[in-house]
Model the fold of this input.
Amino acid sequence: MARYVLVRPARLDLETVAARTGLHPELLRRFAALGLVESTPDANGRPCFPPSTVARLARIQRLRATLSLNYAALGLVLDLLDRIDVLEARVRSHRRWT
Done:
């Protein structure tokens, strides 16, 4: 009998993220070292990522492919895009209550 996971895993391991994004595991480690993606070590010291990392890596790949940004510029653009997301959420929330 097949068993199905009813909830998403809280953390994804390096191999899972690499398989889902098509990126080499060493590049993922580099992105984590540069602070472009969040990672925490598991009990064995291997990096684990939140599920949102897959979407963030897709954004990084899109930025690198379309704008040819270096890693420092990627961090800045990602921070700005995150701030825009927060501000848009606030505007939507404010519109809902007015």
Observations:
- The first strand starts at residue 12 and ends at 13.
